Amino acid sequence: MKPPQSILVIRFKAIGDVVLTLPAVSVVRQNFPKARITFLTSSENAPLLQGFRDVNEVLSLDRAALRSGNPLKVLPEFFGLLRRLRGGRFDLALDLQGYSETAWLARLSGAPERWGTIYSQGRKWAYTRSLPRNKEIHSAEDHLRLLSHGGLSAMEPANEFHLPTAALAAAHAFLEKNRLTATHPLLFLQPFTSSPHKNWPLENYLSIARHWQSRGIQIVFGGGPADRGLLETARRQGFVVSAGVPLLITAGLMRLSTLVLGGDTGALHLAVALGNRVLMLMHEVTPGSPIPFRHPDWVVVSPRAVAIQEIQVSTVNESVARILTGPAGNVSC
Length: 333
Description:
Layout: E1 6-10, H1 15-19, H2 22-31, E2 36-42, E3 57-61, H3 63-66, H4 71-87, E4 92-95, H5 100-108, E5 113-118, E6 129-132, H6 139-149, H7 165-177, E7 186-190, H8 202-213, E8 218-221, H9 232-236, E9 240-241, H10 247-255, E10 259-262, H11 266-273, E11 278-282, E12 299-301, H12 313-324
Parallel strand pairs: 1-2, 1-4, 2-3, 4-5, 5-6, 7-8, 7-10, 8-9, 10-11, 11-12
């Protein structure tokens, strides 16, 4: 294949899934250092792409408008996107989602080379190269498998999110406003995921927070805008809550933390890409589970499948202690 000059990468949902394309994007950049890489994602995830150093341009799609059924919203959004896709003159389109919607967009991009991982054989028509999604391996590894199938050199993928300077400054300001400091050990807790059955009980996180706060560790509870009400209990108990701050400020707070503790959620995958130490609580781990990329030891697993509440507070505290008292922590227990 002639080295492409313009490459389109497609991935819509969700935060963690977008973050987990970082290794693939890094391999694309290593193989094609002079190419222009454009990333197409949903509008709510577009700010996240500021941390993708290898991406030159971001295209965003308002999927809510596109699915609204209102012609006054659907038509401008669709034809505006089509115009931008055609204007990109892409040589290669990489669909890292594999949905019907993204298959159509890959095809409509006009790129002569179109590669995709697919969930249904009926979508092969959209691509010049395709592979069935392998659910037995990590999704980030599956992206790399697609690139290898396309003939790209198997280089060491970089899972690196580059935090914008302004976001880090805003995180410092948040800590200062709440009388915390980045020079002292900080435990960032992310209790809630998008799926209730993946959530460890909030009271357990509060127990963890009380335990470590009593030992001089700073505590911040994080979350999305929908988690504000759920975290009022933590706020009433005197803990700092950052739920609802912009995503990149959350990234900054995690970057300034000694440890990020939480469930299977996009924030923890982002923390890993920031170079942070994380501890992910999971209701089960099977082949293909979204564990921290290439860090299978950064997980505490429920003793019984889909029973995350059975993870004991003492077990988590022991794991946290090993991390906080290690070279990066040096905290007295």
